[in-house]
Amino acid sequence: MDPLSITASVLAIIGASEKTVKGLAKLRSFKHAVAEFSALINEVQDLRLVLANVAVQNHQLEQNPDDGPVLALRSLLKRAEKQVQELEEYIQYDLSKPGIDEPGGIRVKRRSWVLHQEKLATIQQGIKTSRLNLATAIGIVTSLFPNSSTSRFIDHRVSPTRHYETQTGSTGTIQIKAQAQAFRRNCKPWCSCACHKKTTFRYPKLVRNVIGNLFVGYTGMPGLTPSCNETKCQQRSASSLEVTYYFPSWLLSRMLSMTLTLTAFGGPELILRMPRMVNWTTPLWRLSTVGEFGQIGKLFSAAKASPYDVNAYGQSALHYAVGYRHITLCRFLIGEGADVNLQDENGRKPIDSAWDIVLSRKATRTVTEAFMQIFGEGEYLETRQFTLLHKSILELSRTSLFTLLEDSTANVNVPDASGRTPLSWAASRGDIHALEALLNSGAVTRVADMEGSTPLIYAVESGEHQCVSKLIDYGADISAMNVFGATALQIACKASEDTAMLKILIDNHTDINAIDFDGDTALNSATRHRHTENALYLLEAGADPNIANVAGETAVHMAIYYYAYDILAELVHRKVNLAVVNSRGCTILHAVASHYDTKMIAMLEEADFGDINIAKLNADGRTCWDELGREQEANMDEMKRVFGSLLNRIRGTY
Question: Which SMART domains match (predicted)?
Fold first, then answer.
């Protein structure tokens, strides 16, 4: 086989396709067929990208002219050349009349358009099939010649954080998958073109308790996605539709998740899930916060939990693992089948949270690099709709923020796709210089994102005291709550051990006993995260330890559930109410029994349990004795002896 014939075919197709695209672009002015012509343009452009990679591989074809894949490649090129020529002729002789509007111009025969739709659809499908076959063929050629320039091209184009070897044991398949990804990388991943924008819809808050919560998000859907508005944009987003529905709590404790993805390198993919909603006392959530992947594995093996389980907010264990930066647990959960794209009730995905952490510089270098490797970039950056100001702050652009603000401040409060303004990102990164520049340029401090988080909340998370103080000076609402009802103080209590941050907020008159939508106070948050210094500071500042949340549980419950020994000791010393009964009829003794721990029981030996009912039955008809050792594997006789001694002390008998 003459290798020059491949080069000639590639050049011929590229030349013909260029002329075809120009014709289609003019035809696109026909208002009733914008979507159809746009789809054809994209299909031809994608074909040209595949052809460019064929040209890169040409010198290897010269050395292996008689290999089966090479012969097949030649045949596919001939077929593609014929299809593009057919489309070009159809445009010129059937759809257009040259010389009517202007020399060489094109005008559509509007009344006969319906007759041409079926023909164009057939041509488009033929080009698509050829493109997919060519992609597969060049992938196979790549696998045959692993040191080829195409492999180097793939390595350059594909994000270095992708590791396809973990997904397959076939070298050929690895290369084909990587090649498919390479063809999608036609513009920068943070391209702000409108065609990448993700459109979302959800039920208003007022009706969610009655009819449930519906979340719909889509991108790249033909006929719905806006046309490109960036001259450098070279691609459309992969078409995807995500639908998540949360049944109303009065009807069913379930959520329904459906994801439909249409890719250029495969057929439509539909994923339908209906995960269980499990309550807060399930060990899975506590173990996820501390990264105990070994214990979680035992729960999975015993069918006591699964990687698909979600809490009342639709968050899975992977959401927790990402939020708490547990790298090993993230890998374990994904290996067990956890979905990185599972949306919670606010449309938040684990992959979104991971990339927010990366871009916000909220983690160590080890965590940052691990998250980039584990989660890749997907379409996260592609759908963010970052402005130039966003990109400068996030170091995605070399243009100085100060230069941009000198030129114009018109976009200083324009949000990205998540509702985050440049000020929000500057606060999140703890960038005091960028934050001051934005504030001096008119940035508004009270703009909340889709999760209800204000720049102040993000600044508190960053731990930068200067940023927090500066935002308060510029009028930030210190009482603002996110979608979970949490204030900046509650966020600060779980973000880190930082009493200086708490002091700033309390000195500026934040409500120390404010509750979120679960009824939890800042003290509960600090205790749940075992931030002892924060909890003790709050208690000294006047926090009420007896405020019960919606589950009827107080800070004592949190200290028991999360083994916060020092906090428990302080609460016992302060003689908090230990006779409280939660919404499921459980006493403190039920909690102590189910989370049995000798050190904890020793702390309670001298505690005042008031009028606690030792024989109290919970909603499941179980006494505290029945709960003994439910969450632990230990010597039952020893547990009975120690726990029995505590009960005897409470009864006043020894």
Answer: ANK
Instruction: Calculate the alpha carbon distances from 479 to 337, 381, 452, 475, 565 in Å.
Output: 39, 31, 12, 11, 30
| Neighbour-count burial of 270, counting CB atoms closer than 10 A to its CB (0-12 exposed, 13-18 middle, 19+ buried) | exposed
- Domain extents in the chain: 3-184, 188-377, 578-654
Strand order through the sheet with 239-246: 199-202, 213-219, 239-246, 255-263, 266-273
The per-residue pLDDT for range 343-390, each reduced to its tens digit, is 887 778 899 899 999 999 888 889 999 998 888 755 666 678 899 999
* H or E segment and range at residue 272: strand 266-273
Phi, psi of 176 (to 5 degrees): -65, -45
- List CB contacts of 512: < 8 A, sequence separation 6 or more: 489, 506, 522, 538, 541, 542, 543
CATH of domain 3-184: 1.20.1410
Predicted confidence (pLDDT) at residue 225 exceeds the cutoff of 50: yes
Architecture in CATH for domain 188-377: Alpha Horseshoe (1.25)
- Amino acid identity for residue 247 in this structure: F
Residues 6+ apart with CB under 8 A from 344: 310, 313, 314, 315, 319
Where are any strands of DSSP class E within 181-254?
A: 199-202, 213-219, 239-246
Q: Is the pTM of this model over 0.85?
A: no
Tell me: the pLDDT tens digits for 288-329?
A: 998 999 999 999 999 899 999 999 888 999 999 999 999 999
Give the whole-angstrom CA distance, residue 44 versus residue 337: 36
DSSP 455-480: HHHHHHHHT-HHHHHHHHHTT--TT-
Q: What are phi and psi of 649, to 5 degrees?
A: -65, -40
Q: How many CA atoms lie within 13 A of 514 on its CB side?
A: 21
Q: Is the dihedral of CA 586, 590, 592, 597 positive or negative?
A: negative
**Helix and strand numbers, DSSP H then E, in the chain:** 30, 5
C-alpha–C-alpha distance, residues 158 and 167, integer Å: 16
The phi and psi torsions of 611 (rounded to 5 degrees) equal: -100, 35
Q: What is the pLDDT of residue 494?
A: 92
Q: Concatenate the DSSP letters of all residues of 578-626 into one string.
A: -----TTS--HHHHHHHT--HHHHHHHTT---TT--TT---TTS--HHH
In this structure, what token pair is assigned to residue 222?
């033909």
Q: Which residues contact 376 (CB under 8 A, 6 or more apart)?
A: 159, 161, 162
Query: What span, in angstroms and rounded, lies between the C-alpha atoms of 387 and 421?
Result: 9
Determine the straight-line distance between the first and last CA of the chain, rounded to whole angstroms: 97
Contacts of 201 (CB under 8 A, 6+ apart): 214, 215, 216, 217
